[in-house]
Specification:
The chain has about 270 residues and is mainly beta. The protein has helices spanning about 10, 110-115, 200-205; strands at about 30-35, 35-40, 60-65, 70-80, 85-90, 115-125, 135-145, 150-155, 170-175, 185-190, 210-215, 230-240. It starts with 7 loop residues before the first helix and ends in a 34-residue tail after the last strand.
C-alpha cells in the first residue's frame, strides 16, 4: 500500500494560498560551460521560475537587496518543525493550493534532461528552534496518478549543522539522473518505505513532482517553537549538454501586460557565500 504524504507539505499545502501580488520580480540566467548546461534562478530581472516557497500562510517577499548578491526571496513569520523550501508541480495534490504550483525545470523529466546536480544559496535570517541534529536535506518525490500518494521518495542529506549557519551559505547536491545505479549518499525508497532498486532510479527521475530543500534530517523529530525568517537565492540546476530548456515563466505584478520575461543566455559566475 502506498503511503500518503505526511511531511511538512501535506500540512502547509492544505492552508490558504498566498494572496496574489505578494511576490515581486525576480531573475534567472542560463549558460553553457563545456559539456554541462546550467540554469540559475537569480531573482534579479523578472522571472520566478520555480515559485519556491516554504509556507502558504505568509507572503513571499522579493527583497531587491541583501541576496547573494542582489535580489532574493524571503519568507518569515511562520512556525515549522522542518523549515523547508519547495518547488512543486501541479501533479502534487491537484486541487489543493494550485496557485503556487508550476511545471518548471526544477520538477518534471530529469532523466531526459540529464540533471547532474542542484546547488542553492540559503540564509537563516531568524532562527526559531535549532537542534544539534539538523542538517540540509534535498528531497524528491514522485506521486501516483491521484497525486496524493507517493510512488518514490529520495533524499540526500549533507553533514550535520550543530549550530545555525550565519549568513548566506551555498549547498550542493549531486543528482546524476542517468546513473545506472543509485548514486552514493542517496536514500531511495518506494512509497511504502521499501528500498528502491538501481533499475528504478532513472525511471523515478523521469517525473519529479516535488523538489524540496530543508533544514532537517529524515526520521528525526524537532521542536516547533518560535518563528523562522528564511532567504533563498541562486537556485542552480546543472544538466548534460543539449538544447537549452525553456522553463515556465511567471510574469510579476510589475511586468508590462502581455510581456513575458525570458532567461538571459549569458554566463553567470556563481557568487561566493558571504
Amino acid at each position: 500500500m502506498k503511503k500518503s504524504v505526511t511531511t511538512f507539505f501535506l500540512i502547509a499545502l492544505s492552508a490558504a494560498v498566498l494572496g496574489a501580488g505578494n511576490h515581486g520580480g525576480s531573475g534567472s540566467t542560463a549558460s553553457v560551460s563545456g559539456g554541462t548546461n546550467t540554469f540559475i534562478e537569480t531573482y534579479d530581472d523578472g522571472t520566478d521560475v520555480g515559485l519556491w516557497h516554504c509556507s502558504v500562510n505568509v507572503p513571499r517577499i522579493l527583497e531587491t537587496n541583501g541576496g547573494n548578491p542582489g535580489a532574493y526571496i524571503q519568507q518569515g513569520g511562520f512556525s515549522s518543525h522542518v523549515p523547508t523550501w519547495a518547488s512543486i508541480s501541479p501533479r502534487f495534490q491537484p486541487g489543493v493550493n494550485d496557485t503556487y504550483k508550476i511545471d518548471s525545470i526544477y520538477t518534471g523529466d530529469w532523466t531526459t534532461l540529464g540533471v547532474t546536480s542542484i546547488i542553492v544559496d540559503l540564509n537563516i535570517i531568524q532562527v526559531a528552534t535549532w537542534a544539534t541534529d539538523r542538517a540540509v536535506t534535498l528531497e524528491l518525490l514522485q506521486m501516483d496518478d491521484t497525486g496524493f500518494n507517493v510512488n518514490y521518495d529520495a533524499t540526500y542529506t549533507l553533514p550535520d549543522l550543530p549550530e545555525p549557519p550565519v549568513g548566506w551559505q551555498t549547498y550542493s547536491f549531486p543528482v546524476d539522473a542517468n546513473s545506472p545505479t543509485i548514486p552514493d549518499g542517496w536514500v531511495f525508497t518506494h512509497g511504502d518505505g521499501s528500498p528502491g532498486t538501481d533499475a528504478e532510479w532513472s525511471q523515478f527521475l523521469h517525473r519529479i513532482d516535488l523538489t524540496s530543500i530543508g533544514f532537517y534530517k529524515p526520521g528525526f523529530a524537532y521542536p516547533g517553537l518560535g518563528t523562522w525568517i528564511l532567504g533563498i537565492d541562486n537556485i542552480e540546476i546543472d544538466f548534460q549538454a543539449g538544447p537549452t530548456p525553456t522553463p515556465s515563466l511567471t510574469p510579476t505584478p510589475t511586468s508590462t501586460p502581455g510581456a513575458t520575461p525570458r532567461p538571459r543566455p549569458t554566463p553567470h559566475p556563481r557568487p561566493m557565500p558571504h
